[in-house]
Amino acid sequence: xxxxxxxxxxxxxxxxxxxxxxxxxxxxxxxxxxxxxxxxxxxxxxxxxxxxxxxxxx
Length: 58
Hints:
Helix content is 55%, strand content 0%. The protein has 4 helices and no strands. The protein has one domain. By secondary structure, it is an all-alpha fold. The mean pLDDT is 91.
């Protein structure tokens, strides 16, 4: 989702007001709270459900 929105990890982290290293942990599969899932979805302009869907093959 982040890449589709044209964002770097640094750009996404900036939108979330967090260190890039912390954002990377989320992308690499660290367990996150529902609150953080909602924050990430909001920062990317998508719904939380969009982040939970399986990636679609092209």
